[in-house]
Design goal:
Layout: E1 22-26, E2 29-34, E3 37-44, E4 47-53, H1 70-75, E5 87-90, E6 93-98, E7 101-106, E8 109-115
Antiparallel strand pairs: 1-2, 2-3, 3-4, 5-6, 6-7, 7-8
Protein name: Threonine dehydratase
Organism: Thiocapsa imhoffii
């Protein structure tokens, strides 16, 4: 039995190549980053809705303390809501997109949680 979709309610925006939101390769499909959510268009019986996706914790996108990103540390930047970087759901937390990589604020440094492919 297939698990039910986790959908984004009350979504009135149509996502696609011309919608203006960041498009991110996620496995075998493309998700659209919209207000800190990864949306994936999905049709059931001819009706399209948007599934809520998260990047999985895996070898390409690890979790935890992987490495120190001194650039974040040097400029005093702290990743979080309103920091100016796109928020991307990853595992059980939120990372921030910086130069094509997932950054996660951790104590006095940023962890590198891997690359993201923009399409």
């Amino acid at each position: 039995m297939t698990a039910p979709c986790q959908t984004h309610p009350n979504h009135d925006h149509v996502h696609g190549p011309e919608c203006g939101h960041l498009a991110i390769r996620h496995g075998d499909h493309v998700d659209y980053l919209h207000d800190g959510h990864l949306h994936h268009p999905h049709s059931v019986d001819g009706v399209t809705h948007y599934d809520e996706h998260r990047l999985e914790v895996d070898a390409q996108h690890p979790d935890g303390c992987q490495s120190k990103m001194t650039r974040c540390q040097e400029d005093g930047h702290v990743h979080g809501p309103g920091c100016g970087h796109a928020a991307i759901p990853h595992g059980d937390h939120v990372d921030y997109l910086v130069d094509g990589r997932l950054h996660h604020h951790h104590g006095d440094h940023c962890d590198d949680h891997g690359p993201v492919e923009l399409v």
